[in-house]
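FORM 7B: Structural annotation worksheet

SECTION A. Query
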Amino acid sequence: MEYILVVLIAYLMGTSSMSYYLAKLNHVDIRNKGSKNLGASNAMILMGWKAGILVGVHDALKVMIPVCIIRVFFPEIIYGPELAGVAGVFGHVFPFYLGFKGGKGLASFIGMALGLNLVIGLIALVLLAVVTVVTDYIVLGTVTLICSVPLMLYLMHHDLTAVGIVLISSVLIAWKHRENYVRIYNGTEIRFRKANKGEYREKK
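SECTION B. Predicted structure
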């Protein structure tokens, strides 16, 4: 029963969508514009960097908080933090009240990583930033991050089962970005620098 509660509560927290709320307030059709998903990167593309940061922080915290609570206050729930993290990511990607169509899970994954191991989470953030800036593609930074976190957990002697649970969310996020890989190949993927300058925002 405790595992069911952990997964259910973490999933419900994960379904909170700041990008959806902000888009409604700003009359932006975020689900049909830009990259067409309810994530921080699309919020930045369509509403500016301030909106992107707000959404990213929200999406990370909504997963990081339950992971930290379980890790610190309920250590007897084996694999509880990992299960909460993955459930939160799934909640972000598949929110029930939005037709199970949410974001792609990057910020939520970062929140899980920070909650599980602060050092690993910070290293992963640096890798994300460096690869994104160097390649000018957010998706390549994303792939680097979701691959590096399970690897670092393994290298730091985390339980293999725990690593396997985290890897589930890595696979989900990699799958959710499959269209981005095709766009990179076709030369039509949104560039980070142009998005940051607001070149993809609708003119008012």
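SECTION C. Observations
The two ends are 52 Å apart (CA to CA). The CA atoms of residues 93 and 104 lie 6 Å apart.

SECTION D. Sign-off
Analyst initials: ____
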